[in-house]
Amino acid sequence: MFYQTPLKSVTVIVILAALALYAILGGYFAGEIVVEIAVLAILAISLDFVAGYGGMISLCHGAVAGIGAYTFAGLTALMGLDGFTATIAALAVAMAFGLLVGAVTANISGIFFIMATLAFGQMAYVVVFEWKALGGDDGLSGVSRYDLSAIGLNMNDSIQFALFCLLLVLIAYAAAAYVLRSSFGRTLIGIHSNEDRMRALGLSVWKHKAVAFSFSSLLAGAAGVLAAQHTMFVSPELLVWTVSGEVLIIVILGGLGTLAGPIAGAALLVFLKHQVSEYTEHWHLVIGLFLIAAVMAGGRGVYGQVEHVLRRKSRRNANA
Fold it and tell me: Which residues of 179-195 are buried (b: 16+ CB within 10 A; e: fewer)?
């Protein structure tokens, strides 16, 4: 569960390639759907990093993404900074907020940790909602996308922007996988497995949890920056706790602690939402049924269940 197998990487590449082909062949609407999937996938990867591998189920990751989006929007639309400088600043602010949340909540767990992260998210929402310089409850418009004309790319073209977002999903997955393969990642997994034993070995559990949450917030902030560029508009709705709840559903649907599963879960949820909503307004019911099925199947999610079946089959063949 905690190791990045070749199957994970192959699955990620196949999903992203299929989404890229869908965007290219499907036109503008398909490109918009792919961007939506990409933003949610990066946010879900960030949540899976701390929830699946660190045991820290957060309900403030939507707020972290919103902080990244608002920082980028404020620096570009209000202060006139270029997109890349604004992105670095947005990621730094998101990391700092994540480090604060991680440091404060590192010594608590379970429902208390969930509620603490929810409280941080709600505080961030209230600040943005009341901050008139950022538009308050009306939001902030005039956000621009990256200027990549120097290399022949037009980010205002929906297809090219969609492909760019998919590239960032791949980078986010690779970055998370790299960290998990490092000594820091192995330590984080060890803390999740047996925190008391790791603490008895003299490890600074508090520090590792805080840094892990900060790295996860870096990825969440990147999702927020993309979300701001996608709609060229930001509003306090980005920071509502239900966004974090939706991302948690994506992680569970795809497979908690798989890293590849969240990408599959994001694609599944978005496609279900758009396809089912054509026939009924109660698409949430379908998502709920999928979620119940995922939990009843052992809580492994779509990708997790596939990986579990293939692993069992491989063991039977090896013992045959």
Answer: bbeeeebebbbbbbeeb
Q: Looking at the DSSP assignment, which residues form a beta bridge with residue 61? A: none
Amino acid at 28: Y
Beta pairing partners, 140: 234
Q: Show the low-confidence residues of the chain (pLDDT under 70).
A: 1-5, 297-299, 318-320
Nearest Cα residue to 63 out of 152, 156, 137, 129 = 129
Distance (Å, whole) CA 115 – CA 57 = 10
Q: Report the C-alpha gap between 16 and 20 in whole angstroms.
A: 6
| DSSP state letter for 106 | T
Residue closest to 114 by CA, chosen among 3, 271, 300, 245: 245
Q: What is the pTM of this model?
A: 0.93
Measured CA to CA in angstroms, residue 39 lies from 65, 94, 252, 262, 290 at distances of 10, 16, 17, 11, 21
